[in-house]
Amino acid sequence: MRILWDYIKGKGWLPALLGLCTGIFALVLSLYDLQAEAAGYAGLLCLIVLSVCAVWDFVQWRRRLVYLESIAGQAALLLHMLPEPRNMEERIYRELLSELNEERRSAVSALDARLRESVDYYTMWVHQIKTPIAAMGLLLQEDESPRGRELATELFRIERYVELVLSYLRLEGPSTDYLIRMTALDPVLRQAARKYAPLFIRGRVSLDLRETGLRVLTDEKWLQLVVEQVLSNAVKYAPGGHVTVRCKGESLIVEDDGVGIAPEDLPRIFDRGFTGCNGRMDKRSTGIGLYLCRQICRRLGHTITVDSEPGRGTRVTLCLARPRLEVKD
Fold first, then answer.
1. Which residue has the higher pLDDT, 264 or 5?
2. What is the rounded CA–CA span in Å between residue 113 and residue 192?
3. By three-state DSSP, how is residue 118 classified?
4. Mean per-residue pLDDT for 95-122?
């Protein structure tokens, strides 16, 4: 019904034209003292012809409309799929669409080129900055003083941020080196715990790492990045507290008894760049870590959820269950 009404609104001038012509016929016939019924008869014939033409035109118009709706999502890329123009006006619109499409392609190409240049530059920068970081780490190994240990801890944080940048660039890039295979979870957890041991010691945070015995279908390197980021947040926001890493079914749970997360922040903690109340207190927070965790989990087929209560800690749950595949006959 809506389609018919749209058609009538677009062709509303035809009935008015028919009425005007009938009025002209009646006026001319009256001037020549002819019967007025002749004008009505002529108008009726014109109405019949007009109705037949309108039905045929409506059918053609509706067919074109349905076809245009079917290619609506592709018209910007495949202009040749549009119906052939029927008049000069449609031909001009077709040319305008073609020009706009070319401008869009040029803008997208230029944007892609700038993005590739930026990614290449930052990737090169990350790899270059690793050399002085490694050199400083070797120098600080010889310094056993309290100041040396403090500097070593800060250097570890710098190295972690650099790795986070590189992971972000790789994840947002056109391709990622995924290697999906059955992986034992316990070695991944132990390696992440050893890596963050200095921060646990400095923050006086105790770690209860329980054996899981799980084997999961995942990419070991990317899953370890997620675990490391979760442990990093637990250490950062639970100073002097306790962190527990355990398994429940096919889910990995990391709990801490730290400051927790405000209820109004929970729905947005996985947004890119969102830091929340805790992040604003810690000026070094970037709001990238949990965003990366969510993106990595999505690509690996895992899920990550966070439950928290201010002052009572946070629980992060990684569901590592393999997706169920159904084969239909």
1. 264
2. 36
3. helix
4. 82
* C-alpha 282 chain-centroid distance: 27
Q: Which two tokens stand for residue 79?
A: 């202009």
Element (H, E) at 233: helix 220-237
Q: What is the CA radius of gyration of the chain?
A: 35
- 125 with 96: CB under 8 angstroms? no
Angle between helical axes of 146-172 and 88-141 (0-180°, round to 10): 160
Which residue is associated with the tokens 């201010």? 310
Q: How far is CA 28 from the centre of its chain?
A: 70
Determine the Cα–Cα distance for residues 305 and 312; give it in Å rounded to an integer.
Answer: 17
pLDDT greater than 50 at residue 130: yes
Q: Residue written as tokens 């941020």?
A: 161
Q: Which helix (H) or strand (E) holds 309?
A: strand 303-309
Q: What is the DSSP string of 139-181?
A: HHHT--SHHHHHHHHHHHHHHHHHHHHHHHHHHHSS------E
User: 3-class SS at 246?
Assistant: strand
